[in-house]
């Protein structure tokens, strides 16, 4: 791959994810302190918030402005259905307000702000512009504006995920993790005692201490971490990035497994069986969102497994950015049959064999894949 290819796209992607992290931090703080922000349920009963819709509008508007308007193809999670309902006027107004507040701060991140605040129709257009379904050819941005919305509304972990897919392959990924904590064990904090919880009573990046943006370009062999920018420290950016690498631990007894918090999203008893059979001994870290991929890439955990119920189709925006960052940090990600994930088939990871296994290295990965083969028939999945 040409070294300079995608340089501008990646730089813009990192900047817009910083803008989005800032937006999310403010909305989450309001949500938790005053309970004034709207959380609504989508048709599948999953939550969506002002932050999900506002990040999608903000990133869509910035990418379209910078890379050529209607021609920019964006595959993203949200649409305007929920805010087009008669009783959603308050939510829509909050989204328009949040988007404009956020775009006004774009110059802090080296991006141009709009000349005048966006009107409601423009915000709706920015959200619904992200209606591409991707596919095997062409260039597609892939966005999960807030991944782990459940974690977000609980004051816990969540991520902003943006990737670029070209001709069916992820060419780079950017993952914003505004609440990535100082101590790895705080990734699990919702399971801890009240004492830990009260230490984290505020969820601003400062309280968690280590909010970050990770990014990697496919084939570069490098994955990078930038801390979130506090206050007006923009001048130092982007020189503050540092390289990250996966853990070198390959002894299962010392390895840490990450998995989704909700049993509905991944079969905890099946992964516990696999973990036991390969000799894992530590308690799993249950973490909302693609922060699990971030934890593997940063070397804070060695394994991430997700086995959704049969019939559930994984979406590309829940994995694209995380996969490339883990791979370039030295790890590997496959389905449970050992095959790389296929981002070329539209908005779903079509053909995914049973589940997802991300590891810091080959040794652990081989052991887990073999364990899946040995235990699948008796698993009832
Ligand atoms: N039934 C079911 N099975 C499997 N996966 C599902 C399911 N429902 C939702 N999702 C997707 O899971 C995304 C959140 O994954 P997490 O790993 O963060 O799950 S968890 O909150 O820790 O349980 C979540 O992403 P967001 O909607 O962006 O939060 C969903 O895309
Ligand atoms: Mg998601
Ligand atoms: Mg989401
Ligand atoms: Mg969602």
TrEMBL record:
It comes from the Eukaryota. One of its GO terms (biological process) is sulfate assimilation. Its cofactor is Mg(2+). The keyword Magnesium applies. Pfam families: Inositol_P. Its EC number is 3.1.3.7. It is an enzyme of class 3 (hydrolase). Mg(2+) binds at residues 77, 144, 147, 318. Signal peptide: none annotated. The keyword Magnesium applies. It catalyses: 3'-phosphoadenylyl sulfate + H2O = adenosine 5'-phosphosulfate + phosphate; adenosine 3',5'-bisphosphate + H2O = AMP + phosphate. Gene3D superfamilies: 3.40.190.80, Fructose-1,6-Bisphosphatase, subunit A, domain 1 (3.30.540.10). One of its GO terms (molecular function) is metal ion binding. Keywords: Hydrolase, Magnesium, Metal-binding. CDD domains: PAP_phosphatase (cd01517). Belongs to the inositol monophosphatase superfamily. This is 3'(2'),5'-bisphosphate nucleotidase. The lineage of its organism: Eukaryota, Viridiplantae, Streptophyta, Embryophyta, Tracheophyta.
